[in-house]
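RECORD TYPE: inverse folding
INPUT: structure tokens
STRUCTURE:
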């Protein structure tokens, strides 16, 4: 009878040890998953702040109309999606041109947009916090283009290439 009692307690000990090992593995796995998620959270929060998430069909998320007072600045949130097969390095925003309601090209005093450049891997989106500065345009409505550029390195030579653009209305008020 003692042999059976001893056998039962050894089995119980083995089960308890296995339970602790499985519990430890489960906790380690959970910790690893949360660590990975925490690295992605700042990026995810920035993308969720946008009016819509950028996609391959809509690679630039930017307001269609911006009202700005003459000589002032506005803060904006811009989303960019890389629909190409390669990573876009040091991607930055720029306002490339504007035209008046009459179709005249604006050559001076173009508005400027400032944001921190980012690398955008293929098939991923990034959010930019940007500052749009109006540089003294006449009052009125303009059609402008925002473009996204990246740095391309070939044979130790760096060049800048435009990979996305979008038109928007700019209303300059007093």
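DESIGNED SEQUENCE:
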């Amino acid at each position: 009878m003692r042999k059976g009692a001893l056998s039962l307690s050894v089995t119980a000990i083995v089960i308890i040890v296995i339970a602790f090992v499985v519990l430890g593995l489960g906790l380690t796995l959970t910790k690893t998953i949360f660590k990975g998620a925490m690295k992605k959270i700042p990026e995810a929060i920035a993308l969720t702040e946008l009016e819509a998430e950028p996609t391959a069909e809509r690679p630039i998320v930017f307001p269609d109309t911006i009202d700005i007072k003459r000589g002032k600045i506005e803060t904006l949130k811009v989303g960019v999606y890389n629909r190409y097969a390669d990573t876009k390095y040091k991607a930055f925003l720029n306002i490339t041109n504007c035209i008046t309601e009459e179709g005249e090209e604006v050559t001076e005093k173009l508005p400027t947009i400032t944001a921190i450049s980012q690398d955008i891997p293929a098939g991923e989106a990034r959010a930019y916090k940007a500052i749009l500065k109006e540089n003294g345009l006449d009052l009125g409505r303009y059609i402008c283009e925002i473009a996204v550029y990246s740095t391309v390195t070939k044979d130790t030579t760096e060049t800048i290439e435009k990979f996305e653009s979008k038109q928007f209305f700019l209303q300059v008020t007093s």
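NOTES: The first helix runs from residue 2 to 48.
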